Amino acid sequence: xxxxxxxxxxxxxxxxxxxxxxxxxxxxxxxxxxxxxxxxxxxxxxxxxxxxxxxxxxxxxxxxxxxxxxxxxxxxxxxxxxxxxxxxxxxxxxxxxxxxxxxxxxxxxxxxxxxxxxxxxxxxxxxxxxxxxxxxxxxxxxxxxxxxxxxxxxxxxxxxxxxxxxxxxxxxxxxxxxxxxxxxxxxxxxxxxxxxxxxxxxxxxxxxxxxxxxxxxxxxxxxxxxxxxxxxxxxxxxxxxxxxxxxxxxxxxxxxxxxxxxxxxxx
Length: 267
Hints:
Blueprint: E1 4-9, H1 13-26, E2 29-35, H2 38-48, E3 52-58, H3 70-74, E4 77-84, H4 90-95, E5 100-103, H5 108-124, E6 134-138, E7 163-167, E8 173-177, E9 180-186, E10 192-198, H6 202-209, E11 215-219, E12 222-225, E13 229-232, E14 236-239, E15 242-245, H7 251-261
Parallel strand pairs: 1-2, 1-3, 3-4, 4-5
Antiparallel strand pairs: 6-7, 8-9, 8-12, 9-10, 11-12, 13-14, 14-15
């Protein structure tokens, strides 16, 4: 799945800039336009001729209330998210079946949680055969040639020549290494075995595969497979023989996992 095509609507230019910055940093959104009125948004959407994936918009707009604009905007997008400085519209928002409600200034972690929910809904609506159960990985050793900053230098002569299918169930850990993501399985001795690699950013990778229930991020550099989790400590997860620190990015996903396996779990 590609990045989510996105339209931002807000009459406050500073709020537009902040929202655009947060969504760009999260790495899951392709912002197509930022406009200051519902009228401008409608002109853009009519000209575009196809639905955008997500519209983030302020409820309190001068030319048209966000609540009044719901029916109009819903016909131009797959997901609709309210952004406002007040909680007073929350109940009405959910009655109108919008996909999310974010308080400004928006929180990156809340955006990630909301995006995961939207992607899970997308994959639920797909046919069973469309559900991703494998990766196509470069069957190459980790490249050793790096630039002065330590990033792997892409080898155009080798890139794309050697690929293999790796099942999701066999991947224990996905970890960032320079420009690459390395995929690891576990051997009988609990040691990691390199299964392959892809030349992707971690955030963009998760944007495509976040709907796979077995996987979730624990920090900015690692995604784990639930079936290989050995132990969860206060600030880290043990997968195989490796200890991985839990950061703010991963905490909501870890808490959700614990809630599933331990119904009485309290944060």
